[in-house]
Amino acid sequence: QVKLVESGGGLVQAGGSLRLSCAASGRTFSTGWFRQAPGQEREFVASIYGNGGSTLYADSVKGRFTISRDSAKNTVYVQMNSLKPEDTAVYYCAARRITDSNYPYWGQGTQVTVSS
């Protein structure tokens, strides 16, 4: 069992920045960030995986968001720059171990609100 705790959400003006953190209770193979806006389905944002820290990004955040991790702290970050009102959502981190086929572990979510 892996517990995840997100932090770092808040209210920011368009063009601003926020950094979200996801602290895990143990090592994971892959950690991803997802988001869900009101009335919309949850969507993938970014992930980091493997020993080499390979990364994937949704097209909507490429060039603006950067995912990284501190393996010693079992913590994954997403630096979000040039934020837009359409980035407003609840952001969730999710994790899986190498033996998992999907993301079975989820955090409680953190609200990000971008004002225009």
What does this structure look like?
- With 116 residues, the protein is mostly beta strands.
- It contains no helices and 11 strands.
- The strands form 2 sheets. Strands 2, 4, 5, 6, 9, 10 and 11 form a 7-stranded mixed beta sheet that branches.
- A hairpin with an 8-residue loop joins strand 9 and strand 10.
- It starts with a strand and ends with a strand.
Summed up:
The protein is mostly beta strands. It contains no helices and 11 strands. A hairpin with a 6-residue loop joins strand 4 (30-36) and strand 5 (43-49).
Layout of helices and strands:
Elements (H helix, E strand, L loop, with lengths): L3 E4 L2 E4 L4 E7 L5 E7 L6 E7 L4 E4 L7 E6 L4 E6 L8 E8 L8 E2 L3 E6 L1
Parallel strand pairs: 2-11
Antiparallel strand pairs: 1-3, 3-8, 4-5, 4-9, 5-6, 7-8, 9-10, 9-11
Hey, roughly how much beta strand do the residues contain?
A: over 45%
Largest sheet, described in full?
A: 7 strands, mixed
Order of helices and strands: EEEEEEEEEEE
Oligomeric description of these chains: single chain
What would the principal axes of the Cα set say about the shape?
A: globular
Number of helical segments with 4 or more residues: 0
Query: Mind telling me the C-alpha Rg?
Result: 13 Å
The chain-level structural class is mainly beta
**Average pLDDT number:** 96
Low-confidence stretches: none
Distance between the termini: 40 Å
- The percent range for helix content is under 10%
Q: How many strand units?
A: 11
